[in-house]
Amino acid sequence: MSNKNVFLSVVLATHNEEKNIVRCLQAVQPIADEIIVVDGESTDQTVALSKKLGATVINTTNKSNFHINKQLAMDEARGKYVLQMDADEVADEDLVSFIKSIKKQIETGELQTTKAWWINRKNLFLGTWLTKGGQYPDPVIRLYENGFASLPQKDVHEQMKVDGVTDTAQGHLLHYSNPIFNDYLRKFNTYTSFAAVQMHDRKQTLSIFTAIEYCILQPLKTFFSLYVRHRGYVDGVAGFVFALMSSLHHPVAYLKYWELHKKDNN
Hints:
Layout: E1 8-14, H1 21-28, E2 34-40, H2 46-52, E3 56-60, H3 67-76, E4 81-85, E5 89-91, H4 93-107, E6 114-125, E7 128-129, E8 140-145, E9 149-150, E10 161-162, E11 165-178, H5 181-201, H6 208-229, H7 236-264
Parallel strand pairs: 1-2, 1-4, 2-3, 6-11
Antiparallel strand pairs: 4-8, 5-11, 6-7, 6-8, 9-10
Helix pairs in contact: 5-7, 6-7
C-alpha cells in the first residue's frame, strides 16, 4: 500500500500485553489503514496476536521509559493521520465515528486546520470507572496529523508536543489500566523505580528535610488534592484507594532513590 492510500496509522508500544492487545486492535480495525506495534521484548503472545490481527511488528528492547518505544512507532507511521494508543486502551464507537468524519472531510476537500486532538479517557480502577479524583475526563493528545506531534521522551506521563492548532475529539479512549489491584501494583513499582532514577540523575538532596517533604508533605498534598479537592470520595472505595496509592508514590520513589544512593557509596 502506497503512502497516499494510508489515511490512518494506529501505532503502539507493547510489552507483555497479551491480555489487552486483541481488544485494542479489534476496535480500530475498521478505521486503521496500517497498524504498527513496537514490541519491547515480550515473553508472552503479544507479538503473535498482533501479527494475527494484521499489525506490522518491530522488535526492540524494553526500555524503562516506554515513551521512547512509542516515538519509534510514531516515526514508522505512513498515514496522513496517526492514532497513538496504549495496548490497554480501546477506542469507543464515538471516537471511531469521529475519525471517520475527519477522513470524509478530507475526501470532500474541506480544509482541516487542526493538527492534533485531545481525547478524553475513562479510567478503570479496581472494577470502577473513575469519575472524579482528577481521573476524568483525563484528556490526552493521541490523534494528530503526521509530522506535527512528538513525544519529549523525558517522562512516563508526559503529553505530546504539537506544532499547530489543537482541538478536542468526540468520543473516548476506554483505559483498562488497572482492573485488578495486582495490575496497579506492577505499574506502581515500575513508575516509582523510574522516578527514583530521575532523582538519582538530578542528584536530589538526601536530608531530613527532603525526607519530610517526600514522605509526609507531598503524600498529604496529593491525597488531599485527589480525594477532597477533586472529589475522589464520589467514587467510593476505589476513589479512596486511588488517592491513597497515588500519595504513596512519593515516599516509595524517595526510598528507592535512597537505596540507589547507598549503593553508589558502598
